[in-house]
Amino acid sequence: MKPVYVAIATIILDQGVKIAMQMNNLHVLRNSHAIFSLPVGGKVMIFISSTFLITLAIVLSKHSLSKLSIPITLVLAGGASNLMDRIVYGSIIDVAKIGSMYFNIADCAIIIGAVLAIMHILKKTEAVQ
User: Fold this and answer.
1) Contact 13, 105 (CB under 8 A)
2) Averages of pLDDT over each 10 residues, the chain, 129 residues
3) How many CB atoms lie within 10 A of CB 111?
4) What is the pTM of this model?
5) 82, 107 in Cβ contact below 8 A?
6) Mind telling me the catalytic residues?
7) 94 within 8 A of 31, measured Cβ to Cβ
8) Distances (CA, A) of 32 to 58, 63, 77, 89, 123
């Protein structure tokens, strides 16, 4: 599967669920904090998010990372969708809660992408040794 399709699907799914929940008056949380409700937010979070996404995109454009393309795409698409929330709504729209952590599909994409990337890197490191 091409990374661009993964990115488009991730953003459409995340934004679509948020819009559908709001249109049907289902409970959503406007979260001005970082992922999993960590207490960092506002303009600082927009700056950190956009700087991270732009830097990662530039670095990746200069390297061939074919086996990491889907995991990295998940991280970038999740980050981009959350950044869209911050710009449009002034906060992240979270749609689910486990314990005291609120999250959305974009957060899940970021975590899944990061875990897959770490697993690939660890596997590659083991093979070298």
Assistant:
1) yes
2) 87 96 89 64 69 72 71 89 88 88 91 90 71
3) 16
4) 0.78
5) yes
6) 94, 107
7) yes
8) 27, 34, 19, 10, 36
